[in-house]
């Protein structure tokens, strides 16, 4: 019986090389990897090529056994969604659907605001200025990731379960409404 060599490493490195560095975390979230898995792998370290590879391996572990072509098709669909500005929803595996939807919801919310406006809003959302400042300093080179992390910090401070998408949506809409009322 002939053994077929996997080309999964080549597939992973193709995507690592062809997704902009500042969009990498968005990409991995759109694939449905849980935020705690992402943070466990990154752990405050720089997002290197090796870290990106490890994140894709974690994603693969959660997806389960597929063919190389199936993995590649899922990665390509997520990249296409990124390329279209998250306007076309790729189909996430059922067991990862919740995390895909959470990422899309947060990205949809944060794209409404520029950096300066969002930082003003962040001080309303997260009343601990030092928490906002720490996130701002940590992600100063990536505004979108800074905004994403502030929203996650807000959920944490408010005790909002991110598995409850209705609560997430309602909470973000209340923030947007409060911002409008302040204008």
Task: Note the total helix count.
Answer: 10
Shape-level CATH architecture of the largest domain: Orthogonal Bundle
Q: What structural class do helix, strand and pairing data support?
A: mainly alpha
- The level of helicity is 55-70%
Mean pLDDT: 85
Compressed to H and E, one letter per element, the order equals: HHHHHHHHHH
Largest sheet: none
**Radius of gyration from the alpha-carbon trace, in angstroms:** 17 Å
What's the β-strand tally?
Answer: 0
Can you tell me about this structure?
This is Death domain-containing protein. This protein is mostly helical and 183 residues long. It has helices at residues 8-18, 24-30, 35-42, 49-63, 68-83, 97-110, 115-125, 129-138, 143-158, 165-182. It has 2 domains: 8-92, Orthogonal Bundle (Death Domain, Fas); 112-182, no CATH class. It is built from 10 helices and no strands. The radius of gyration is 17 Å and the shape is globular. The N and C termini lie far apart (71 Å).
Task: Summarize the structure in short.
With 183 residues, this protein is an all-alpha fold. The protein has helices spanning 8-18, 24-30, 35-42, 49-63, 68-83, 97-110, 115-125, 129-138, 143-158, 165-182. The chain contains ten helices and no strands.
Fold blueprint:
Elements: H1 8-18, H2 24-30, H3 35-42, H4 49-63, H5 68-83, H6 97-110, H7 115-125, H8 129-138, H9 143-158, H10 165-182
Helix pairs in contact: 1-4, 1-5, 2-5, 3-4, 6-10, 7-9, 8-9
